[in-house]
């Protein structure tokens, strides 16, 4: 069942188009992320859904109901902001009670719900505190409790982790996902951090310049990106310039130059025409390095140019003809380090090569 | 570890402080003179002129008239100024900068110009405001409102609009959002602005000179008028009370604001 639906929604500010015509369906209970670089229109999309902005064209539906013309207070949508927006003149208790008070619930009910919400976010006993007495992570929890207590139909989160330090971010990532799952609330999450999107989401929309370029599961997005932009934006990538030789649905053959033709996969949303130039994506961790190895599968011969020690892994830069590739090798004793200048062969399995337009 | 202020800076600060304080000290001492005339240094100290002020029908009524005028001006200026500041900060349109400058212009325009302009306006339109308390009130409001716009505008500039958005999406109407979220968070700016408006109106001279009605003079005009004919120390005594009133209003608000903070802490 669809929970959120965008029908031809776009938004222009004067002459700048922040969001191009977008059609989108978010399913009931889904954790849906919008991922893209700064200024690509993520917040604008979210703010239209929350009711702070009116779309220039199109309609927005929530659970089948057209909410395009409703003010924010009539939408039943909860939003958590990047800076949390905790009311500084109220203590934590009153912050969380705010939405319930606006709904004219009686004192006893409010008390019960606020206490339950505090417990849910692990802040029992923090009711009397004020915003300035809370850490970033605690503010985050209050902001979430304040929204969840009104039992919204949709939960919106606009870069809720970007103000936290790395360790806290990791922790909150799983915490938010856990809460979301346990309530089963439809969630739209905005981030420019690909690792957040990959870990938390059921589906991700990759955005650039106001357009949703690809919508799919984290596996789809990471392993079958639909364009060079997505391939490069998500994860580390080797993108080799190739020519399409043969194309057949989700499989194709590409020419790496010098007549070296290898098979590759293609996202099912993409059509490649033979003869056109394309990119061959091979993730650094998908490549294997060996001085010389007999075996099956596509391979390239090259020379180690540089080696970077990164603790858990070693990162090699390898020149292979006109291509330059990055290879990540786990730091294990049996994989003895290769020195710059060493002749090597690069292997990858057929499935890990993806052709992108 | 105590914070060390460089000596030259300390000397400058003390000099600056004295420069501002000396006129006040002179007025206070002159008002406490035991002599017949307004002189400095005073010829001995006494409460003679203070008592004279308290017994002077003219000064007392001028003092209370100014007080009431400043109070009424403060109320209207606070409302208009807050509304104007909200409008200026919450809307985006071409000419907004020009409009802001226009609203704030009474701060930079000499009071004489405003006073005279209004005087000429009242006379030439004949709307019956010339030298009436209503006309004077309007003049004071015009003169004081920009101070409220300035302080409330500053409070709004640092106000995080997502607080309002959070309140809205939690179910509060625009009015409720303003009352329960915006207003409490800009109240310090509003308070500061209203004190400014009160003080500016209480001490206003040039605008009042053109607009005050003959039978109800504000204190500065009364002091000026009496000094024109007689170099009378009771004018300085009146000054003492004016200084006391202004100081008290500043201290009082300071106290109120601090108490609020204290309450928030616990
Ligand atoms: N109120 C506005 N007036 C004019 N232009 C705006 C307004 N809000 C956003 N924009 C423009 O719309 C585009 C998209 O902005 P948006 O805030 O949606 O980006 P974003 O993807 O959320 O970026 P970030 O990751 O930096 O938050 C930007 O080019 C921005 O300058
Ligand atoms: Mg944004």
UniProtKB/TrEMBL annotation, chain A:
<dbReference type="GO" id="GO:0140359">
    <property type="term" value="F:ABC-type transporter activity"/>
</dbReference>
<keyword id="KW-0813">Transport</keyword>
<dbReference type="InterPro" id="IPR003593">
    <property type="entry name" value="AAA+_ATPase"/>
</dbReference>
<protein>
    <submittedName>
        <fullName>Putative spermidine/putrescine transport system ATP-binding protein</fullName>
    </submittedName>
</protein>
<dbReference type="InterPro" id="IPR003439">
    <property type="entry name" value="ABC_transporter-like_ATP-bd"/>
</dbReference>
<dbReference type="GO" id="GO:0043190">
    <property type="term" value="C:ATP-binding cassette (ABC) transporter complex"/>
</dbReference>
<dbReference type="Pfam" id="PF00005">
    <property type="entry name" value="ABC_tran"/>
</dbReference>
<feature type="domain" description="ABC transporter">
    <location>
        <begin position="4"/>
        <end position="234"/>
    </location>
</feature>
<dbReference type="GO" id="GO:0016887">
    <property type="term" value="F:ATP hydrolysis activity"/>
</dbReference>
<dbReference type="InterPro" id="IPR050093">
    <property type="entry name" value="ABC_SmlMolc_Importer"/>
</dbReference>
<dbReference type="InterPro" id="IPR027417">
    <property type="entry name" value="P-loop_NTPase"/>
</dbReference>
<dbReference type="Pfam" id="PF08402">
    <property type="entry name" value="TOBE_2"/>
</dbReference>
<dbReference type="InterPro" id="IPR017871">
    <property type="entry name" value="ABC_transporter-like_CS"/>
</dbReference>
<dbReference type="InterPro" id="IPR013611">
    <property type="entry name" value="Transp-assoc_OB_typ2"/>
</dbReference>
<dbReference type="InterPro" id="IPR008995">
    <property type="entry name" value="Mo/tungstate-bd_C_term_dom"/>
</dbReference>
<keyword id="KW-0067">ATP-binding</keyword>
<dbReference type="GO" id="GO:0005524">
    <property type="term" value="F:ATP binding"/>
</dbReference>
<keyword id="KW-0547">Nucleotide-binding</keyword>
<comment type="similarity">
    <text>Belongs to the ABC transporter superfamily.</text>
</comment>
From TrEMBL, chain B:
<feature type="transmembrane region" description="Helical">
    <location>
        <begin position="101"/>
        <end position="123"/>
    </location>
</feature>
<feature type="transmembrane region" description="Helical">
    <location>
        <begin position="234"/>
        <end position="257"/>
    </location>
</feature>
<feature type="transmembrane region" description="Helical">
    <location>
        <begin position="7"/>
        <end position="32"/>
    </location>
</feature>
<keyword id="KW-0813">Transport</keyword>
<dbReference type="Pfam" id="PF00528">
    <property type="entry name" value="BPD_transp_1"/>
</dbReference>
<keyword id="KW-0812">Transmembrane</keyword>
<keyword id="KW-0472">Membrane</keyword>
<feature type="domain" description="ABC transmembrane type-1">
    <location>
        <begin position="63"/>
        <end position="252"/>
    </location>
</feature>
<keyword id="KW-0997">Cell inner membrane</keyword>
<comment type="similarity">
    <text>Belongs to the binding-protein-dependent transport system permease family.</text>
</comment>
<feature type="transmembrane region" description="Helical">
    <location>
        <begin position="63"/>
        <end position="89"/>
    </location>
</feature>
<feature type="transmembrane region" description="Helical">
    <location>
        <begin position="135"/>
        <end position="159"/>
    </location>
</feature>
<dbReference type="InterPro" id="IPR000515">
    <property type="entry name" value="MetI-like"/>
</dbReference>
<keyword id="KW-1003">Cell membrane</keyword>
<dbReference type="GO" id="GO:0005886">
    <property type="term" value="C:plasma membrane"/>
</dbReference>
<protein>
    <submittedName>
        <fullName>Putative spermidine/putrescine transport system permease protein</fullName>
    </submittedName>
</protein>
<keyword id="KW-1133">Transmembrane helix</keyword>
<dbReference type="InterPro" id="IPR035906">
    <property type="entry name" value="MetI-like_sf"/>
</dbReference>
<dbReference type="GO" id="GO:0055085">
    <property type="term" value="P:transmembrane transport"/>
</dbReference>
């Amino acid at each position: 069942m669809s929970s959120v639906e965008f029908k031809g929604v776009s938004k222009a500010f004067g002459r700048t188009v922040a969001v191009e015509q977008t059609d989108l369906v978010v399913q009931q209970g889904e954790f849906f992320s919008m991922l893209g670089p700064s200024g690509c229109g993520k917040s604008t999309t979210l703010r239209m859904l929350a009711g702070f902005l009116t779309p220039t064209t199109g309609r927005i539906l929530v659970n089948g109901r057209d909410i395009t013309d409703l003010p924010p207070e009539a939408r039943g949508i909860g939003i958590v902001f990047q800076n949390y927006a905790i009311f500084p003149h109220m203590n934590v208790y009153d912050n969380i009670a705010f939405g319930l008070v606006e709904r004219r619930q009686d004192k006893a009910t409010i008390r019960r719900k606020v206490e339950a919400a505090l417990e849910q976010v692990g802040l029992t006993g923090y009711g009397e505190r004020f915003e300035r007495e809370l850490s970033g992570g605690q503010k985050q929890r209050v902001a979430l409790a304040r929204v969840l207590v009104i039992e919204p139909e949709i939960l919106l989160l606009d870069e809720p982790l970007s103000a936290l330090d790395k360790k806290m971010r990791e922790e909150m990532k799983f915490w938010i996902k856990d809460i979301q799952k346990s309530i089963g609330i439809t969630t739209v999450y905005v981030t420019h951090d690909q690792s957040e999107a990959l870990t938390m989401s059921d589906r991700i929309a990759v955005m650039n310049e106001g357009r949703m370029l690809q919508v799919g599961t984290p596996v789809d997005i990471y392993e079958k990106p639909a364009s060079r932009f997505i391939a490069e934006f998500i994860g580390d990538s080797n993108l080799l310039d190739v020519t399409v030789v043969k194309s057949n649905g989700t499989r194709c053959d590409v020419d790496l130059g010098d007549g070296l033709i290898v098979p590759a996969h293609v996202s099912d949303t993409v059509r490649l025409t033979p003869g056109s130039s394309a990119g061959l994506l091979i993730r650094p961790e998908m490549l294997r390095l060996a001085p010389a190895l007999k075996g099956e599968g596509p391979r390239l011969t090259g020379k180690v140019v540089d080696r970077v020690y990164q603790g858990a892994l070693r990162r090699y830069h390898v020149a292979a003809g006109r291509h330059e590739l990055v290879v990540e090798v786990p730091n294990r004793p049996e994989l003895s380090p290769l020195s710059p200048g060493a002749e090597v062969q690069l292997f990858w399995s057929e499935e890990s090569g993806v052709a992108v337009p | 570890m105590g914070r060390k202020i460089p000596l030259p800076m300390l000397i400058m600060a003390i000099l600056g402080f004295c420069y501002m304080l000396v006129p006040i000290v002179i007025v206070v001492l002159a008002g406490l003179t035991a002599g017949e005339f307004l002189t400095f240094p005073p010829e001995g100290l006494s409460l003679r002129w203070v008592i004279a002020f308290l017994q002077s029908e003219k000064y007392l009524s001028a003092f209370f008239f100014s007080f009431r005028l400043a109070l009424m001006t403060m109320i209207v200026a606070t409302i208009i100024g807050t509304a104007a500041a909200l409008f200026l900060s919450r809307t985006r349109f071409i000419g907004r900068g020009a409009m802001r400058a226009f609203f704030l212009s009474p701060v930079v325009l000499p009071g004489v110009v405003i006073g005279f302009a209004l005087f000429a306006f009242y006379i030439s339109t004949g709307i019956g405001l010339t030298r009436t308390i209503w006309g004077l009130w309007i003049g004071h409001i015009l003169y004081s409102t920009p101070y409220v716009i300035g302080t409330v505008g500053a409070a709004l500039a640092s106000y995080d609009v997502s607080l309002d958005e959070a309140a809205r999406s939690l179910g509060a109407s625009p009015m409720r959002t303003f009352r329960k979220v915006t207003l409490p968070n800009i109240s310090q700016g509003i308070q500061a602005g209203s004190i400014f408006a009160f003080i500016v109106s209480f001490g206003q001279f040039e605008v009042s000179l053109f607009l005050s009605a003959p039978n109800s003079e504000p204190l500065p005009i009364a002091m000026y008028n009496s000094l024109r004919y007689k170099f009378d120390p009771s004018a300085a005594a009146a000054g003492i009370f004016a200084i006391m009133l202004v100081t008290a209003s500043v201290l009082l608000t300071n106290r109120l604001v601090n108490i609020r903070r204290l309450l928030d802490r616990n």
